């Protein structure tokens, strides 16, 4: 029989158990090392609709690029969108940018100091304002996100049918610890994210099990069915035309900007959309999910001259060097496709696409393994870049001919052999 939360003593027990559990089991996340309201704000916006594992690195990059509200407010929106690229739900980034400009325009030089004031900023709702105010300013106010709602519904023995919104707010407000509201709110969120999971909650590990009326899954509304949709995009590539590194033939890709008038991802850059979805023999097929639509995306190589007949007439088009695409606000799908293009071509802007670097390293490793096993390599057009004897700088890439010429006339410093670079590429130069 679960203990009822109907007196102050029980509420105090819940607070103490939860905070004690949190102090021992909390994950070490970058936004938990600060109480800077701007940093908390950025993390809360990024975490909306996005998993923690995806956000961690993107949050660090964002904070490196825009360490203060002034830094964020001072750049054009396209730069913020470019930094946000791949996280999806771009309206969040637009609102964040707009709100940063509002803070700076207010001339105070600092963020609003209460939840009520924070709510006046564009894109800051009840939940975000409460999270910032409780964590940064110790304002005793409860936060109720999806995770907390699930925990509270289960503890109280309610179905998740939307009828309990007012009761949920009351219960959350009663439970929040007035002395440590920020920690308490984060503890509730952490419990929902790591223990009181949507499916198969880990009740044996739960600090609130003694007070919980459900101890298991509670009744929820059926999820919307996901649907499959096939779409086609044109991959239009050409050799590099000009600029630094053109001698390395990095190549350019044709991108198109979505009109500002569309409701979905206005202003973002993507591959030109094809009139007809190509069949399975295109360049590649990529799967990409947005909300409950699973897109099966067929990518076809299209020559510049045939593009006008095959593609939908869209917004402004621009040729962009493959190693310059980082400066553009790409759609998540375009980012995904270009990362694959780069991982299988001679040009790999690894600073842009960390996943490319991983694929690239895997590719090197498989070449090395093949050679060790006496089999011909699957491909030889990309080779390691940190071999000091070959004098490649970390961010330079070589064409096959350049590589082969260099390899044939060089000795390795490690084993003094002319032909070891294949092996040492994997073992000693970070490709494994
Ligand atoms: S006992 Fe189980 S269902 Fe109840 S709050 Fe804890 S994890 Fe969730």
Strand content: 5-15%
Largest sheet: 4 strands, antiparallel
Give the N-terminus to C-terminus distance in angstroms.
55 Å
The CATH superfamily title of the largest domain:
Hypothetical protein, domain 2
Any low-confidence stretches, pLDDT <50, length ≥5?
A: 346-432
Question: Keywords for this structure?
Answer:
432 residues, alpha+beta, Endonuclease III, domain 1, Nucleoside Triphosphate Pyrophosphohydrolase, 16 helices, 9% strand, globular, disordered C terminus, binds iron/sulfur cluster
Short précis:
Helix content is 41%, strand content 9%. The chain is α+β, with helices and mostly antiparallel strands.
How would you explain this protein's 3D organization?
The protein is about 40% helix and about 10% strand. The protein folds into three domains: about 10-210, Hypothetical protein, domain 2 (Endonuclease III, domain 1); about 225-340, Nucleoside Triphosphate Pyrophosphohydrolase, CATH 3.90.79.10; about 350-430, no CATH class. It is globular. The termini are far apart. The protein has 16 helices and seven strands. Strands 2, 3, 4 and 7 form a four-stranded antiparallel beta sheet that branches. Helix 1 (about 10-25) packs across helix 11 (about 180-195), helix 5 crosses helix 6 and helix 14 packs across helix 16 (about 420-425). By secondary structure, the chain is of the alpha+beta class. It has helices at about 10-25, 35-45, 50-65, 70-75, 75-85, 90-105, 115-120, 125-135, 145-155, 165-175, 180-195, 305-310, 330-345, 355-370, 400-410, 420-425; strands at about 225-235, 235-240, 250-255, 270, 285-290, 295-300, 315-320. Bound molecules: iron/sulfur cluster. Iron/sulfur cluster (SF4) binds near residues 155, 196, 209, 214 and 215. Iron/sulfur cluster (SF4) binds near residues 154, 206, 208, 214 and 216.
